[in-house]
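Quick one - inputs below.
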Amino acid sequence: MLYLSVIVLIPLAAVAVKAFSGGLRSFWDAISNAVALQALAVTLGASLLVAAIGAVMGTIVAWVLVRDQFPGKWLVNALIDLPFALPTIVAGLTLLALYGPDSPFGIHLAYTRAAVLVALLFVTLPFVVRSVQPVLIELDRQVEEAAASLGASNATTFRRIVLPALGPAILSGAALAFARSVGEIGSLVLIVGKVQIASIVIFADIESNAAQAAAALSVVLLTLSLVVLLVLRRVGGRVAH
Amino acid sequence: MRISRRATLSLRALALLYLTLLLLLPLAVVFARTFEHGLAVAWTWMTTPAAISAFWLTVLVAVIAVPLNTIFGVGCALVLVRGRGRGRPLLDALLDLPFLVSPVMVGLSLILVYGEQGWFGKWFVSQGISIIYAVPGIVIATIFVSLPFVVREVAPVLIEVGDTQEQAAATLGASSWQTFWRVTLPSIRWGVAYGVVLTTARALGEIGAVLVVSSNVAGSTLTLPLLVYQRSSQIGAQSITSAYAAATELAVMSLVVLLAMTLLGPRRREAQ
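Output:
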C-alpha cells in the first residue's frame, strides 16, 4: 500500500491539487481556451473513431483466427501481440518511415489527422482481438446450427445469436482501446506535426513551465476517459443480460 | 453459421490485408531503412557512445523496475484474491489507474511531487539527491506505468487454482511462508512469468512518462526510446539513420518479448 501510495496515489493527488491551485477560475481558463478545447475535441473524436474501427476490424480478425483454417495461422496469431511488445516510439517511427516525407510508396499521411488515426489503430489493435478471441472459441456452435436448421439466414444468426454473445467482449475491448487512445503519446509524438492532441498539448505546457494548465487539462482528460469507460461498461453489462 | 467459401476467403483476405498494412509493412520499412547502407554502417550507429549508454540505461531501468513490480504484483494479487480486508474493491479499482492515466500525466505528477519545487522534492534536494531529470525519476516513471501487469495476470490464476491445496499444506503443519514457496508459487508460476514479460515489454519501451521526467541529455538520462525520439526529431540524414538503428535494436528486443509471449501465453492459465 505504501508502494502504491508513493508511486501512484500521492503523485496523482498532486496533479489534482495543482489543477485547482489557482482556484476554479484559473482551472476553467486553462481548459476553455481555444487550443485546449480543440485538442480535447480532436482527441475524443479520434479515440471514439479508433474504438469503433477497432471493434469492427478486431472482431473480423478474431473471427478469422478462430473459425478459419489456413497455413501460417499461428504466425498471424502471434503477430497480434506485436503492438504490445513493440515500443510505441518505434511504432511512430515506422509509420513516419512508411507515410512520411520519404515514403517509399509516395503516401504522405504524416502530420495529418489520418496519421494519428493509423498510429492509434496500430497501438490498440490487440485489445479487441484478444478480448473477443476466447469468447468466440468458447461459443457453442450447436446454437448456431440450431438457428440455421430453423431457417435463420446467416445475417439473422449473426445478429441474434453470435453478436449478443460477443457484445460484452467487443465493448470491453473497445473501451480499453478508447482509454489507451485518449492518453497515447509515444506513437504520436513523431507524426502529429501541427495536429493538436491533448497529450501533446499537456506535454508542451509542461515543457513551458505551465504546470497548472497541464494539470487542469490532465484532470479533464482523465475524467472524460473514466466517464466513457463507465458508460461502455454499463452498456456492456446490459447487453450481457 | 455456415459461411460460403467465397465469404470465408474474403474475410480472411480482409483480415490479413489489414494486418499487413497496419503491422508488417511499417516494420519492414524500418528494417530496410536501417540496413540500406549495409550492415557495417548500421552497426557503427548502434555502437556510438550515446547508443551504448542508452542501451545500458534501458536495461538498468528494466532490471530495477521489473523485480519490484513482480514482488508487489504477486503480493497484491494474494491480498486481492485471498485477503479478507474491506478495502479490496478500492485497491482493485486503484490498481487500474496506471492504465487509465495518460503517460504525460504520470510524468507531470512525478514532477509535482519529486521535482525541485515538489512536495517531497525539496527534502530530496536538501539531501543532495535529484530525482526528476535524473535516473531515479526514469525508474519511478517506469514502475508507475508498468505496475498493474503482474497483478492482472496473477489474480485470475489464483482464483482458478483455488485454495484447497494451500489449506491442505496448512493442515499438515506448513508455515504460511512454506506454503507460499512450495504450493502457491509453483501453481501460479506461468501467470507470474507472463506478467513479467508484459512488464518488461512496457519497461523497455516506455516513452511518454519518461520523456517528461528526463533531461534528454545523451550519455546520462537518455534511454533507447528517448534516443529514437531525439534523433528522429532532429534534421539531417545522419541523425535519422541513428534513430533507425536504435529503433531496430528495440524492435529486436520486442521480437524476443513477442516470442516469450507466444510461448507462455497458452500455459499461463493452466493450473499445475
